[in-house]
């Protein structure tokens, strides 16, 4: 954001002193009024349930305008990413700020692939849930339990810890989801196959059985990969805002 030459003036009908509020211009989207000093100078809060007119942070990651049907990841239109990129390239873009070259993509894919396994004790933890438990309740428990296995890298102020935590979550989430599904269906868990793509490996862990070879349908594989791209970043809604509020 960049400061604007224009300021907003807030006045009160009860005779209280008015105050000037800075206005900032975003690289895209509407201008924003900075109200951070409002309470300190007036003793008043703003009331905006659901953040309907509030920008919670300055972000270079995502821009969304639901009314216009616009969604940008790091400035790239989502339709271009869905057509020309795969999910792991999109993950690299969100984490690093730009799309990878061939060498960077290869290194990133290898790094994610090397972290697809989860500790064998996770299956015993999973057995504590009812088989008909809601999938989101199960996933909340499983993802939270990961910190018990990687307590040496949970310092959010350490950039290296944040990087490896992101890689582990990207890599292990399909494995955990597939384990939860297999558990609910009473079927044996299927281990990751690192020769498959990210989406193909997820399909294998979800739908394969030890009885016979599972062949990934390339059409469904590509469609699933595009679904992952569309849901790769939650912007500032739902769980993203919740995590930011809890961590602030």
How does this model look, in words?
By secondary structure, the chain is mostly helical. The chain folds into 2 domains: 2-82, Rubrerythrin, domain 2 (Single Sheet), CATH 2.20.28; 115-222, Orthogonal Bundle (Citrate Synthase, domain 1). 46% of the residues lie in helices and 11% in strands. The strands form 2 sheets. A 3-stranded antiparallel sheet has the order 1-2-3, with no helix packed on it. A 3-stranded antiparallel sheet has the order 4-5-6. A hairpin with a 2-residue loop joins strand 5 (70-73) and strand 6 (76-77). Helix 2 runs antiparallel to helix 9, helix 6 crosses helix 7 (159-185) and helix 8 packs across helix 9. The relative contact order is 0.10.
CATH homologous superfamily classification of the largest domain: Citrate Synthase, domain 1
CATH C-level class of the largest domain is Mainly Alpha
What fraction of residues sit in β-strands? 5-15%
What about the largest sheet? 3 strands, antiparallel
Spatial strand order of the main sheet? 1-2-3
Helix content: 40-55%
Element-by-element helix/strand order: EEEHEEEHHHHHHHHH
Tell me the CATH architecture of the largest domain: Orthogonal Bundle
Question: How many discrete domains?
Answer: 2
CATH topology of the largest domain: Citrate Synthase, domain 1
> Radius of gyration from the CA trace?
23 Å
Q: What is the typical, i.e. mean, pLDDT?
A: 91
How many strand elements? 6
Question: What would you call the structural class?
Answer: mainly alpha
Unreliable parts: none
Shape: elongated
DSSP helical segment count? 10
Distance N terminus to C terminus?
21 Å
């Amino acid at each position: 954001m960049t400061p604007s030459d224009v300021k907003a003036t807030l006045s009160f009908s009860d005779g209280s002193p008015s105050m000037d509020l800075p206005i900032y211009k975003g690289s895209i989207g509407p201008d924003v009024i900075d109200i951070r000093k409002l309470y300190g100078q007036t003793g008043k809060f703003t009331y905006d349930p659901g953040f309907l007119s509030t920008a919670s942070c300055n972000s270079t990651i995502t821009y969304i305008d639901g009314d216009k049907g616009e969604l940008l990841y790091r400035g790239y239109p989502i339709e271009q990413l869905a057509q020309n990129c795969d999910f792991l390239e999109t993950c690299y873009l969100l984490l690093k700020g730009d799309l990878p070259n061939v060498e960077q993509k290869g290194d990133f894919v290898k790094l994610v692939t090397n972290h697809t396994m989860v500790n064998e004790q996770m299956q015993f933890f999973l057995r504590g849930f009812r088989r008909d438990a809601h999938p989101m309740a199960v996933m909340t428990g499983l993802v939270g339990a990961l910190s018990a296995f990687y307590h040496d890298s949970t310092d959010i102020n350490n950039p290296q810890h944040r990087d490896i935590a992101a890689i582990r979550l990207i890599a292990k989430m399909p494995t955990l989801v597939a384990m939860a599904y297999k558990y609910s269906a009473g079927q044996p868990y299927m281990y990751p196959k690192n020769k498959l793509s990210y989406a193909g490996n997820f399909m294998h862990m979800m739908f394969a059985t030890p009885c016979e070879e599972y062949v990934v349908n390339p059409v469904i594989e590509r469609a699933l990969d595009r679904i992952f791209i569309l849901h790769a970043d939650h912007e500032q809604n739902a769980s993203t805002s919740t995590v930011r509020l809890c961590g602030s």
